[in-house]
Amino acid sequence: MNDSSWGAPPQAGYWGPSDQGPVQGAAPAGPTYDAPEAQQTRPMPIVPDEPAYGGHQDDDRGAARLSGPLFRDETFRDETQQPPYDVRQSPSYDPRTQPFDTPQTQPYGAVPQNPEPMPDVPPPAPAPQKKSAGRDLGAAIGVGVGLGAVIIASLFVVKAVFVGVIAVAVVVGLWELTSRLQERKGIKAPLVPLAVGGAAMVVAGYVRGPEGAWVAMALTALAVLVWRMTEPPEGYLKDVTAGVFAAFYVPFLATFVALMLTADDGAWRVMTFLLLTVVSDTGAYAVGWRFGTHKLAPRISPGKTREGLFGAVSFAMVAGALCMQFLIDDGSWWQGLVLGLAVAASATLGDLGESMIKRDLGIKDMGTLLPGHGGIMDRLDSLLPTAPVVWLMFVLFVGSG
Question: Would you give the distance in Å from CA 88 to the centre of its chain?
Fold first, then answer.
């Protein structure tokens, strides 16, 4: 039809009551259609029995809102024509490239079916965590006992042998420190002049006293500057700076242990120094592990707590009072209390300083030479800065002789 639509009123010349009767040549009474144009009329769409998606089952208007294809097996849609239609009547339909019977995973107009959500199940409660020391405690104890036996034997048999033990520890510590600097930061501190100068520094301190230690330190720094000149100038400043720092941090501070050994009761002074440092670390660990809740320096060493520091101070003061009273000539218990407090403070600061270096390098231990402990430098971290403090306290309380 050209001029009429579904539901339009009848027009003259087609059908309907008239005073002149039926029009001659009109089509028989029945549904309205135009005989000459009957072949051009499009078939009325077939309305499915079930309501279209989006419509109510009692709403007849839902039939006009078909959202899916006309036929169940129709899978293609030509957007240039109005739906619904048979895809096989489209001029662009090609059965070779668009097989009609090929199913699609989700045809046009299909409603995705969401799976039913699973009921909320609370996650299982985490298992209770037990506090751990973070190391092999058995190996740490075994290595500690072995080192203690070597130190005591060399300390009380021949003092010169103990000086050799200090020199060996210094050389190994320098090797660990320079290796980590080169691996993690690309800093090439010259090891050869540091090792030779460090060992000479310890011997000079034992033989010539503080003056010999200072001279050896100056010569070692000069040797580092000259040795580095044999390589290209790129990075010279950072390499020699790291070398001078290493010379001061490891062998020069260790020289004060040799200075303590030169006194008449030097062996007992060194033993007091070692005992107080070990007792301070043990008290910090024991009290901090059992009662520690308040962090001391979380950005530097998360494992250290204020309660641990209190334990270090308490243990060191008690041990200091006993050692000064019974091991040191002309010593007094109250001097031991002061000495223990100073040792706890210097040992904690030394441990934090070593932790700061390792944080900057991004490592946990300086080495793996000592099972359960890490490297030599991981054991010297609290001993090195404590040595000059203890030497000075002995000089002030009982003299250098």
Answer: 62
